[in-house]
From TrEMBL, chain A:
Keywords: ATP-binding, Nucleotide-binding, Transport. This is ABC-2 type transport system ATP-binding protein. GO terms for molecular function: ATP binding; ATP hydrolysis activity. InterPro entries: AAA+_ATPase, ABC_transporter-like_ATP-bd, ABC_transporter-like_CS, ABC_Transporter_VariousFunc, P-loop_NTPase. The keyword Iron-sulfur does not apply. SUPFAM superfamilies: P-loop containing nucleoside triphosphate hydrolases. Residues 2-209 form the ABC transporter domain.
UniProtKB/TrEMBL annotation, chain B:
The chain crosses the membrane at residues 21-40, 52-80, 121-141, 147-164, 204-225, 231-251, 272-293, 299-320, 332-362. Keywords: Membrane, Transmembrane, Transmembrane helix. This is Uncharacterized protein. It comes from the Bacteria. The keyword Transmembrane helix applies. The keyword Transmembrane helix applies.
Length: 210, 375
């Protein structure tokens, strides 16, 4: 599914990630590693938000050569989302629906489940970090992706919403054959996501963790 | 000896104020240079006469009530700009600590620190004020000179009181401007978001830009009133209009990087991205575009507008190459400004249009996706 070829990411002279030849097969993955190991950097690179050296291919679509097609198939939810404060949650969802060519009301179940209807019409400047995080998670499901990247999805959201999110991930994976890469410091709930596999970032590279 | 509190506040707000507004301050400098450059090139005013005119302008400000009022209005706009900047900075997460550290000091200590911060921010005004006071005293305008000093002290004191007030009051969330509330139900297409941002969070910068732009249009048009049929004049006006708008171009790049970083994951072709964002400049430059269409033939106005847009595109693309490095951006504007002066003088303007468009597209497409974003 996702193939890395001579991938490396540096900040100045400091190389933080080097993945020479590695393939992630379809599935749900918990990406973990110590602080500063490069989890967010890796997800942002896969999402097309950061420059890197080398190649990244999703089902043979090259991010650098065919970025428009690639980005139709990869969605990203930020760890600490920042959106224009004057837009409302509803406007953000419409913006993503348009950009990702998604049908309307595609994420209504998730919005309902996370109890977001009450404030979606409010400007984002009035949102708490938890509300913004929930919105960012909802936006990551908009469109027709094959891979969804969620950076620290457990941060700042309440337990009830978390249960809804787990169920949504599970359903989307089973019904829609969508793969997930979820980065988190905390262990994910293996009862809620029994099929989850682990990826470890250590020593500046990525490995399947048994 | 400044207290640690004053040093922190000065470093956090005064120094960053100048960095953030270097584009605007550069514009003032560039305008001055261009004024001297053109007057000398056309040979209409000798250096002695230019000195005389500068002195005359200062004396006019001191002796004419309307000019004094305009000068004071400019000071008030500058003050409001600094208030807006510091208020926005105080709302950022990295400055939250000030609410429970510096705000715990005595009110008099806080007032004193903020007074010094505001004086530092007033540095360009202070330099001019000192000059005008010296000229005023030399020519006997004692009362006006005293009034200028008193007014600046008053603005500084009011500013320090304002900063102490906002850092000591309990915050409530109400960040949305009246303008944005009015267009609450309007559809906001992705490529126009920056325009909405300008009317929500950058109104004073926009207002100053527009005032400067119109003063320049009127000024140049008047100075060259005997050369109205010379095609170089509207191009010179357009160049000055674009230079005054560089601060908005820089802010657009910053807005895209800070608030629209999620859009780097959008499946939008780069040609659409390249041309899409120009809609903001069409909206923001609409008054100036209208002016060209009412003062020149439609064909000329269209040509001049396209020429101006090619410069906007070029400056935007340079930012995608350099990132948010304000010094590099200012140097680029400076070089471009002088180069284009010669281009206009030697009537080579039309060669710039295709060169500028090709260069800006190549620079953008090479840098947009992977070069500078979030680095």
């Amino acid at each position: 599914m996702l193939h890395f070829s001579n991938f490396s990411k540096s900040y100045g002279a400091n190389t933080v990630l080097r993945i020479n030849d590695f393939t992630i097969e379809p599935g749900i993955y918990w990406l973990h590693g110590p602080n500063g190991s490069g989890k967010s950097t890796l997800l942002k690179s896969i999402g097309g938000l950061l420059f890197f050296e080398g190649e990244l291919l999703l089902d043979c679509i090259n991010l650098k050569r065919d970025s428009t097609n690639y980005k139709r198939k990869v969605n990203f939810g930020d760890a600490e989302p920042i959106f224009p404060e004057f837009l409302t949650g509803t406007e953000m969802i419409s913006l993503f629906e348009e950009a990702k060519n998604a049908p309307a009301k595609q994420v209504d179940d998730l919005i309902e489940g996370m109890n977001m209807h009450a404030y979606l019409h409010e400007p984002l400047g009035s949102y708490s970090s938890g509300m913004l995080k929930k919105l960012s998670l909802v936006l990551a499901f908009v469109g027709n992706p094959k891979l969804i990247l969620l950076d620290e999805p457990l941060n700042t959201i309440d337990q009830a919403s978390l249960a809804v999110l787990y169920q949504f991930i599970k359903d989307k994976h089973e019904e829609g054959e969508i793969s997930f890469l979820l980065s988190s410091h905390q262990p994910l709930d293996k009862q809620a996501l029994p099929q989850i596999k682990e990826l470890l970032i250590d020593q500046r590279t990525i490995n399947l963790f048994n | 000896m400044l207290s640690t509190q004053t040093k922190i506040l000065t470093k956090t707000f005064a120094s960053s104020f100048f960095k953030a507004h270097a584009g605007f301050l550069f514009f003032l400098f560039a305008t001055l240079i261009s004024y001297c450059f053109f007057i000398k090139t056309l040979g209409k005013v000798s250096p002695e006469e230019a000195t005389f005119f500068n002195l005359a302008i200062t004396l006019t400000i001191l002796s004419t009530p309307i000019m004094t009022v305009i000068f004071f209005l400019a000071c008030i706009i500058y003050t409001l700009k600094s208030w807006q900047y510091i208020t926005l900075q105080l709302q950022s997460v990295q400055n939250e600590f000030l609410y429970y550290s510096i705000a715990a000091a005595s009110k008099s200590a806080q007032l004193k620190s903020w007074f010094i911060v505001q004086l530092r921010i007033f540095l360009p005004i202070l330099i001019y004020a000192i000059y005008s006071v010296i000229v005023g005293i030399a020519y006997g305008y004692y009362l006006h000179s005293l009034f200028v000093i008193f007014f600046i002290i008053l603005l500084t004191a009011a500013s320090s009181w304002f900063y102490v007030h906002i850092t000591n009051k309990l915050n409530h969330i109400n960040n949305i401007s009246v303008l944005i509330k009015l267009v609450k139900n309007w559809r906001k297409p992705f490529f126009t978001l920056y325009t909405f941002y300008v009317f929500n969070q950058s109104k004073i910068v926009f207002l100053i830009t527009k005032i400067s732009s119109w003063l320049l249009i009127m000024g140049i048009f008047q100075v060259f009133s005997d050369l109205k049929n010379d095609i170089r004049v509207p191009f010179l006006i357009m160049l000055m209009v674009i230079i005054t708008h560089t601060v908005l171009i820089y802010n657009e790049y910053r807005f895209n990087t800070n608030y629209l970083s999620f859009s780097y994951n959008f499946p939008i072709p780069k040609t659409t991205l390249f041309f899409g964002f120009t809609i903001n400049y069409f909206l923001l430059l609409l008054p100036e575009i209208m002016w060209f269409f009412t003062h020149y033939s439609s064909l000329s106005a269209l040509g001049i507008t396209l020429w101006g847009f090619s410069l906007v595109m070029l400056l935007r693309s340079f930012l995608y190459r350099t990132g948010l490095k304000i010094k590099t951006f200012i140097k680029t504007i400076f070089i471009l400004f002088f180069f284009l002066h010669f281009v206009i003088m030697y009537q080579l303007v039309w060669t710039i249009l295709p060169i500028s468009l090709v260069l800006s597209y190549v620079t953008f497409s090479r840098n947009y996706y992977y070069k500078t974003i979030l680095e």
